[in-house]
Amino acid sequence: MREALLQTDLPLPNRRSGKVRDLYDVRLTDGSDALLIVATDRISAFDVVMANGLPGKGIVLTQISRFWFDRFADVVPNHLLSMDVADVPGLNATERAALNGRIMLCRRVNILPVECIARGYLAGSGWKDYQASGRVCGHVLPTGLRNGDRLPQPLFTPSTKAAAGHDENITYDEGVGVIGAANMAAIAHLTLDLYVRARDYALTRGIILADTKFEFGLLPGQEQPILADEIFTPDCSRFWPADDWEPGREQRSFDKQIVRNYLEELVHQGGWNKTPPGPVLPPEIVERTLGRYLEAYELLTGGQLHLDDF
Prior knowledge:
The structure is a single chain. Strands 8, 9, 12, 15, 16 and 17 form a six-stranded antiparallel beta sheet that branches. A five-stranded antiparallel beta sheet has the order 1-2-3-7-6. Strands 4-5 form a two-stranded antiparallel sheet. The protein has helices spanning 57-71, 93-99, 124-133, 172-179, 181-204, 257-268, 283-301, and strands at 16-17, 21-27, 33-39, 44-45, 48-49, 80-82, 103-107, 110-111, 116-121, 135-136, 139-140, 150-156, 159-161, 167-169, 207-218, 226-228, 237-241. It contains seven helices and 17 strands. α1 (57-71) packs parallel to α7, α4 packs across α5 (181-204) and α6 packs antiparallel against α7. The longest helix has 24 residues, at 181-204. The protein folds into two domains: 16-110, Phosphorylase Kinase, domain 1 (2-Layer Sandwich); 111-258, ATP-grasp fold, B domain (D-amino Acid Aminotransferase, Chain A, domain 1). It has 310 residues and is an alpha+beta fold.
């Protein structure tokens, strides 16, 4: 198995890192400024980055995003300029080879500080909220729903970053207070519209898209939000095999639920407490999780992804 790319150190300015991605500023040959997003093979859960990664995961995520950006290019503009490493100035051949298949060269946008979550099924934190209150992020739901049930209609549940860096659910009106009424209305509409389109398509491919999240931003001088970050990947979405869907239990998943389940058991055994540093994931968990990512790509796109080609 190839080695996981856990970090980058490129000769480009203003390097910063998120849980999975490394970002750099880029000056293009035409003199314009752009953003380079590198999807590493890091994997996080419970807001903690694990000690090891999934070799090739960043490539899978980037290629899934490519598929969806292409599919929805006529629905909403996005920040993507290129995924070709040859378009990134200032890199040598070795650096370009390491990045092949895992980069997005993007227009610089001002990210709106409201994360947009669409929920079509009762799962995860939504299920926990419902058990405690009969609500999901303030939305009152019918009684008697089970874990994994399809919701009567998709929900828009925004969140924002709390001071400690964690996602914190907010109300729609609180979002208006952060980014304004026009922006909030626009991103709520786009979130649910994109979710429904992707949900319906994925179902034809044998996948249930249970929930997902988006980020939107504004180009300088423009008022209409555009899509940024990633879209409908296993890192930002919950995918279930449709032929195995059975409400009333945890669903088998194409995302990193395998990792979450392993970590929950580790916590239960007293081997970790959900704080940094993240533990080393066993080879079996790495292999199974990466296999599920690849299976999701193949089902969604109808093609095969050979990591050795990158």
